[in-house]
UniProtKB/TrEMBL annotation:
Residues 479-491 have a biased composition (Low complexity). InterPro entries: PPIase_dom_sf, PPIase_FKBP_dom, Trig_fac, Trigger_fac_C, Trigger_fac_C_sf, Trigger_fac_ribosome-bd_bac, Trigger_fac_ribosome-bd_sf, Trigger_fact/SurA_dom_sf. The gene is tig. Residues 1-39, 470-491 are annotated as: Disordered. It is an enzyme of class 5 (isomerase). Keywords: Cell cycle, Cell division, Chaperone, Cytoplasm, Isomerase, Rotamase. Residues 17-32 have a biased composition (Polar residues). Residues 197-244 form the PPIase FKBP-type domain. Its EC number is 5.2.1.8. It comes from the Bacteria. It catalyses: [protein]-peptidylproline (omega=180) = [protein]-peptidylproline (omega=0). This is Trigger factor.
Length: 491
């Protein structure tokens, strides 16, 4: 029976980590007035071994269920389906098959009871081994599982961080208004040589080793000179050409069948269009906004930039306070959990983020200028920080008795839906169907925990002024985003 197939779910409603006495002293733990016994052995600060002994009479319900299940699956001549006596099943199919079915049915319950009795916080699935099974007498098994380490959260009110001061200059305002002006630019054909800022319509042909590539021909491509969004060298090639003019240049291809190879590019300009920006006056303000004058538009731009910079300042404060908090707490790292987290992050990067843009990991590392070893070390460091962030903030949630209201959960759900590109109702349905509501509640709770730590910390700007970060809904949601980024759980 060593190889019995097992499926043990992680138990819910676990209250807290085992006490130090529990962790150090294996013991028998009668469960109620029954005779099931369990003992806990600490293997390291993040892993334990449970040893459980179950008197055979406690398997009666599972044995009955096993006989009933087998009854529905088999046929025996002379008996109606579902009415085959137990002794006949034992004779025809073997008592061992019944015991295996019964044990697989019973193990999750006895494992969960042992976990709750020891007041453990398990992480992931246990490794279960049946050590003894005596028909009619006893079932014994062990279960090794990672657990949340017991943490001591020190006084964090002494944390001090420095963030950038909020300063909006006239240059910032002018740049913002200019960006808005760019959105209302118009284009018109011109009969002159192309210059920087013009939009040219071009035909392109790429050759490698003198051969035109099958996917190396493009027609009627609009390109803004100076934008750097097409091919290296094209700006110099088309600048000074009028409609009908051609040029040849060499460039490294950024995609396609010959990606990364040097190619000879022929470009023909078919049209030149100039961009015309609207005049910066009251009429433009009325066109581009709800304001009547340009001065009102600029004043609003200044206020908007101030809000953005204050939000950035709050995010910076949260990130720095979180880093300082993590330095204060020693967190033993569960090795299996860390390995799983590293693999998950790598899989998501390769098959989701990079896969969506048609890039592989090798090309990504080349663009980042990183070796495989550097990438893996960085990934491990990020994973460790994510796990540590969750452990520490969860401990603060418990310590500070942080709760999450329905409105807070709804607001977070809506933001998550927007980030994932789904409608809120659709996203909410998916969350419920996949049993992810507790995960979202945990995210908000950890965000509130971080906001609590930030509120207790001293935050100064680069000018030496105290920065007051109010613990309002926006701050909590911003803190939740900061936590998600640290944990690597962004939508």
């Amino acid at each position: 029976m060593q190889a019995a197939r097992l499926c043990v779910s992680e138990p819910g409603a676990v209250r807290r980590s085992a006490t130090s006495a529990d962790r150090q002293n294996p013991r028998s733990q009668p469960q109620g007035d029954r005779t099931v016994k369990s003992a806990v052995e600490t293997l390291n600060p993040t892993r334990v071994r449970l040893t459980v002994e179950v008197p055979f009479e406690e398997l009666k319900a599972s044995l009955d269920a096993a006989y009933k299940k087998i009854n529905q699956q088999v046929t025996v001549k002379g008996f109606r389906q579902g009415k085959i006596p137990a002794r006949v099943i034992d004779q025809r199919f073997g008592r061992g098959a019944v015991l295996e079915e019964a044990v697989n049915d019973a193990l999750p319950k006895f494992y969960t009871e042992a976990v709750n009795e020891a007041e453990l916080n398990p992480l992931g699935q246990p490794e279960v081994d049946i050590t003894e099974l005596k028909d009619g007498e006893l079932l014994s098994f062990t279960a090794e599982v990672d657990i949340r380490p017991a943490l001591e959260i020190p006084d964090y009110s002494g944390i001090e961080v420095t963030v950038d001061a909020v300063e909006v200059t006239d240059e910032d305002v002018e740049k913002s208004v200019e960006q808005l002006r760019e959105r209302f630019a118009t284009t018109s054909p011109v009969e002159r040589a192309a210059a920087e800022g013009d939009i040219v319509t071009v035909d392109l042909e790429a050759k490698v080793d003198g051969e035109v590539l099958e996917d190396g021909v493009a027609a009627d491509v609009d390109y803004t000179i100076g934008s750097g969004q097409l091919l290296d060298g094209i700006d110099d090639a088309v600048t000074g050409l009028e409609a009908g003019g051609s040029a040849t240049f060499t460039s490294e291809l950024k995609g396609g069948s010959a990606e990364g190879k040097e190619a000879e590019i022929s470009v023909t300009v078919k049209a030149v269009k100039a961009r015309e920006l609207p005049a910066l006056d009251d009429e433009f303000a009325q066109l581009a906004s709800e304001f009547d004058t340009l001065d009102e538009l600029k004043a609003d731009s200044r206020k908007r930039l101030e809000r953005m910079k204050k939000f950035d300042q709050a995010t910076q404060a949260q990130e720095k306070v979180l880093d300082e908090l993590l330095k204060l707490v020693e967190v033993p790292m569960p090795e299996k959990l860390l390995a799983d987290e590293v693999n998950t992050r790598k899989h998501n990067l390769e098959h989701h983020q990079l896969g969506q843009i048609g890039m592989n990991l090798e090309k990504y590392l080349e663009m980042q200028g990183k070796t495989v070893e550097e990438f893996e070390a960085e990934l491990k460091e990020q994973s460790e920080k994510g796990i540590k962030t969750q452990f520490v903030l969860d401990e603060i949630v418990n310590k500070e008795k942080v709760s999450v209201g329905q409105d807070e959960l709804t607001e977070h759900l809506v933001r998550r839906a927007q980030s994932s590109g789904m409608a809120p109702d659709q996203f909410a349905q998916a969350v419920v169907e996949q049993g992810q509501v507790p995960m979202l509640v945990g995210e908000v709770a950890r965000g509130k925990a971080l906001a609590t730590v930030v509120e207790a910390a001293t935050v100064k700007d680069s000018a030496g002024e105290i920065v007051n970060l109010e613990d309002d809904e926006d701050e909590v949601e911003a803190a939740t985003e900061t936590v998600e980024a640290a944990e690597g759980t962004e939508a």
